[in-house]
Design a protein that fits this description.
Shape: globular
CATH topology: Rossmann fold
Strand order of the largest sheet: 3-2-1-4-5
Number of helices: 7
Radius of gyration: 16 Å
Strand content: 5-15%
Structural class: alpha/beta
CATH architecture: 3-Layer(aba) Sandwich
Number of strands: 5
CATH superfamily: 5'-nuclease
Helix content: 40-55%
CATH class: Alpha Beta
Order of helices and strands: HEHHEHHEHHEE
Largest sheet: 5 strands, parallel
Length: 165
């Protein structure tokens, strides 16, 4: 299944050379802020920031800040996010009615089979709806949280190496 996803995305890229747009999930941002990326992954992250349209949702930023331990840590997060914004990260601040309805539909369809025990599931569904609606490829290290959702294109950050950037 994974290789089909990679092939489909590569084919889409070759047909639409100017449309390489990625939605960055909170776990990628958390790893970046926490300096939990190996050097190769961090270099790849910088490369896509410099060369492609990269967005993240305000919801993802809220998840990042949720992990702040104290004021000093929050200020560290502020600096890291500001650095990413200077490198080209754009933040999506709103969610449309269409995206809200799609998020609810996904949530409703999978709430029994895929759990709803915490608010991050709700944020994931909103992020999924934004990605589908805006035709963005979701970059996440939690691919299993998303791979069963129809019409969503998603990849792990390290798998972007397989695409000819």
């Amino acid at each position: 299944m994974f290789s089909k996803t990679i092939k489909k995305i590569i084919n889409n890229f070759s047909r639409k050379k100017n449309v390489k747009m990625f939605m960055i999930d909170s776990n990628i941002l958390i790893n970046y802020v926490g300096k939990n990326m190996d050097e190769t992954t961090e270099d790849l992250f910088y490369e896509i920031l410099e060369n492609y349209k990269i967005v993240s949702s305000i919801l993802c930023l809220m998840e990042v800040y949720q992990g702040a331990r104290d004021k000093s840590h929050r200020e560290h997060i502020d600096r890291a996010i500001e650095q990413l914004r200077k490198l080209g990260l754009k933040i999506l601040y709103g969610i449309s009615e269409k995206e809200s309805k799609l998020a609810f539909k996904i949530f409703h369809n999978f709430c029994l089979s895929h759990g709803t025990s915490n608010c991050s599931i709700i944020i994931d569904r909103l992020l999924t709806a934004q990605s589908i609606n805006k035709n963005l490829i979701l970059v996440t290290d939690n691919i299993g949280d998303f791979n069963y959702i129809e019409n969503l294109k998603s990849l792990r950050l390290k798998d972007l190496r397989k695409i000819n950037l």
